[in-house]
Amino acid sequence: MSAATLNPATDADKLIYLVEDDLAVARLIGNVLRDYHFRCEVFHSGSELQRRLRQQLPDLVILDLGLPDMDGMSLVREIRAHGRCGVVILTGRGHVGDRVMGLESGADDYIMKPFEPRELVARVRSVLRRCSELAPDPVSRGGRVASFAGWRYDAESLTLTAPDGGEKTLSAGEGQMLQRFLERPNRVLPREQLLGQDDMSPYDRSIDVRISRLRRKLEDDSYSPRMIKTVYGAGYLFLAAVSWA
């Protein structure tokens, strides 16, 4: 099956912004995405992306951390502040600390250079699928606002409201994970189900980073968690009564 025949109906309406200062790499990625029917706009600096974000928010941003005019991590946080879209970091930095920092900044996935084009497309689709799963469903459970342990979570805006009224905005990946917990409380959920990946490597630690990030936003002590419990060898368990309105 050729690239041009894979999911054209679902991909054709998705807008992706690519931020990459290496012209050859940018051309390669842009061509791959268009071959798979995505709409793609290419930017060679962070400032170009900033101007475009003021006009239109895409479905997903693919961002190289090594930009000529600004820090890529800061740009990830800025993208998050604009609204709800997926963020995939693409970089040649191989240190595990950089990968963790990228996820901590709010990215939904992290791809190392050099990369296989099909893997890039698969990861892009995975992030887009997570974002689409967070779309509001007014029929399901009577609404999309969950209440639990004094907290409220609005799935449409990805807004988490603390018992004291303070608000926090989640990334698409964090929102998807929390929503899966909230829809299946008091059940052990395997790592693959939480990330939406059936072929997850046993050495993939991205789930641990995201769980840690979510625990911090829920003010859940990672050393003695009250809400998100680790069930060793099985997955994670969300310990709270949940109601939807």
Write structural notes for this entry:
Keywords: DNA-binding, Phosphoprotein, Transcription, Transcription regulation, Two-component regulatory system. With 245 residues, this protein is an alpha/beta fold. The protein folds into two domains: 3-133, Response regulator (Rossmann fold); 140-244, Orthogonal Bundle (Arc Repressor Mutant, subunit A), CATH 1.10.10. The protein contains nine helices and 13 strands. A five-stranded parallel sheet has the order 2-1-3-4-5, with helices on both faces. Strands 9-8-7-6-13 form a five-stranded antiparallel sheet, with no helix packed on it. Strands 10-12-11 form a three-stranded antiparallel sheet. Helix 5 (96-104) links the parallel strand 4 (86-91) and strand 5 (109-112). Helix 7 packs across helix 9 (206-217). The longest helix is centred in the middle third of the chain and has 17 residues, at 117-133. The chain starts with 7 loop residues before the first helix and ends with a strand. Mean pLDDT is 83; it is low at 1-6 and 136-142.
Briefly, what is this?
By secondary structure, this protein is of the alpha/beta class. The chain has nine helices and 13 strands.
Number of helices: 9
Instruction: Look at the structure and give the CATH class of the largest domain.
Output: Alpha Beta
Secondary structure: helix percent: 25-40%
Reported CATH architecture of the largest domain: 3-Layer(aba) Sandwich
State the distance separating the first and last CA atoms. 44 Å
As laid out across the biggest beta sheet, the strand order is 2-1-3-4-5
